[in-house]
Amino acid sequence: DVKVTQSSRYLVKRTGEKVFLECVQDMDHENMFWYRQDPGLGLRLIYFSYDVKMKEKGDIPEGYSVSREKKERFSLILESASTNQTSMYLCASILTGGSQPQHFGDGTRLSIL
Amino acid sequence: DAKTTQPPSMDCAEGRAANLPCNHSTISGNEYVYWYRQIHSQGPQYIIHGLKNNETNEMASLIITEDRKSSTLILPHATLRDTAVYYCIVRGSQGNLIFGKGTKLSVKP
Q1: For B60-92, how does the pLDDT look when each residue is reduced to its tens digit (9 = 90+)?
Q2: Does the beta-carbon distance from A45 to B94 stay under 8 Å?
Q3: Which end of chain A has the smaller Cβ count within 10 Å, N or C?
Q4: CA-CA distance, A72 to A75, in Å (whole number)?
Q5: What gap in Å lies between CA A73 and CA A61, rounded to an integer?
Q6: Among A44, A95, A91, which residue's Cα sits nearest to residue A66?
Q7: Is the CA virtual torsion A14, A20, A26, A31 positive or negative?
Q8: One digit per residue, pLDDT tens: chain A, 113 residues?
Q9: What are the residues whose beta carbons fall under 8 Å from the beta carbon of A99, sequence distance 6 or more?
């Protein structure tokens, strides 16, 4: 089974801190995605990556950056955390091409105080 | 990007079949339909996907209409653990999944 692991299930940080969310997948998938999920807004795409050192902006990239130094790891960075970034963050991965489904991690519930 | 429409909520009796409908009238010819579900505080779980033909796996069946404008997810014998939000999804142009608001399925004893 595909496993997507997010480093923390719950995280509490302070406004202005630099926050790192880590995601690791074990199936050699090329594509990885970061979403955030908020009540009433569904899942929104923040950033995605097609390959190592490649990154593309999603629908809501402001205030975030990403890093993909190794194929299995995709990191989301909140440069200077703000309270409006309190949310559930979800990482997903998928093979390139075909119709294979995305596989999600269990999410990180991030609170910015 | 194609969008999907689902009823906001449904109830189902335990042991009965749960039939969850989805409209995707703007879907293009080569776009697959994916179904996921999400139990509170967990990540979305993949259930099944299809293009034209009906599909079945150990979790569910997927019925797609001939014109591909709608589909139905069938959980043949719903249990209390099937209570979740179910999402019918087509992929966006960037390969991402475009989640709508889904259907909150409540399985009742």
Answers
A1: 999 999 999 999 999 999 999 999 999 999 876
A2: yes
A3: N
A4: 10
A5: 19
A6: A91
A7: positive
A8: 668 999 999 999 999 999 999 999 998 888 999 999 998 888 899 999 999 999 999 999 999 999 999 999 999 999 999 999 999 999 999 877 678 888 999 999 999 99
A9: B32, B49, B51
Chain B residues with CB inside 8 Å of A33's CB? 95-96
Q: How many Å lie between the alpha carbon of A105 and the closest alpha carbon of chain B?
A: 6
Cα of A77 to nearest chain B Cα, Å? 20
By Cβ distance, the residue of A4, A48, A99 closest to B96 is A48
Partners of B87 in the β-ladder: B36
Express each pLDDT in B11-30 by its tens digit: 999 999 999 999 998 888 88
Lookup result for tokens 């039939």: B19
Residue A9 host element (H or E): none
Residues 55 through 94 of chain B touching chain A, CB cutoff 8 Å:
92, 94
DSSP-based three-state secondary structure for A74:
strand
